[in-house]
Amino acid sequence: MSTVIARPGLAPLVAAVRAAVAEADTPARTAWRVADALRANLPGPDILTPAERAGSPDKYTPHLLHVEPDVPFSILAVVWRPGQVTPIHDHISWCVFGIVQGIEHETIYRLEDDHLVVAGTATNRVGEVSGFAPPGDIHHMENTGDDISISLHIYGADISDSGTSVRRVYDLPVRR
After folding, report:
1. Sheet strands side by side (includes 74-80)
2. Contact indicator for 78, 47 with CB cutoff of 8 Å
3. Is a pLDDT exceeding 80 seen at residue 71?
4. Distance between CA atoms of 49 and 52, rounded to whole angstroms?
5. Quick check: 111 and 135 in contact, CB under 8 A?
6. What is the pLDDT of residues 144-161, one digit of tens each?
């Protein structure tokens, strides 16, 4: 059993996600319901301390905020300085994210034999929420703005041990 991490101001979101996860019956429906819960309960940047909101000059910085001990889900805040980007990856479970501060650009890919194809893009701004479930969850994210961005991520897994929800990183050619 994992440890629940107490964070002031997170209780309404945790309760809403707990209820959404309990109601859903497939990973995709769970992602949709959790996205609705996050949209209705998206906290502000003050969910993090000023030091946490500063991020790191080296790479985007995740902060584990909550791990649900009974129904597996984890909530993280990710701080991105301008230009920071994830590798192209997929996930071990459904994932939902909402933008708390700044701008994040997402590119979604489709795997075709020995290469990836860009399947779509989105520029996400404060208050916008997105989600998905495997398969079809290959993407990468980046802060394309001039300021620090913060996003809240909810994963359908306990990631307190691994620290990540990434299942696989893709190092394949990309074709448009």
Report:
1. 61-67, 74-80, 149-155, 95-101, 129-132
2. no
3. no
4. 5
5. no
6. 999 999 999 999 888 777
Residue 162 has pLDDT above 70, yes or no: no
Lowest mean pLDDT among 91-95, 131-135, 151-155, 162-166: 162-166
pLDDT score, position 72: 82
In this prediction the pTM is: 0.90
The two three-digit tokens of residue 97, written as one number: 């994210």
Amino acid at 20: A
In angstroms, rounded to a whole number, what is the distance separating the alpha carbons of residues 63 and 80?
11
| Overall size of the chain counted in residues | 176
What SS3 state is found at 137?
Answer: coil
All residues at 6 or more sequence positions from 31 whose CB lies less than 8 Å from its CB, including other chains: 94, 95, 96, 131, 132, 133, 156
For the chain, how many helices (H) and strands (E)?
Answer: 3, 11
H-helix or E-strand spanning residue 75: strand 74-80
What 8-state DSSP symbol labels residue 97?
E
pLDDT for residue 4: 63
Q: Give CA separation, 71 vs 17, 20, 97, 129, 155, in Å.
A: 10, 11, 19, 22, 11
pLDDT at residue 109 tops 70: yes
Quick check: 81 and 165 in contact, CB under 8 A? no
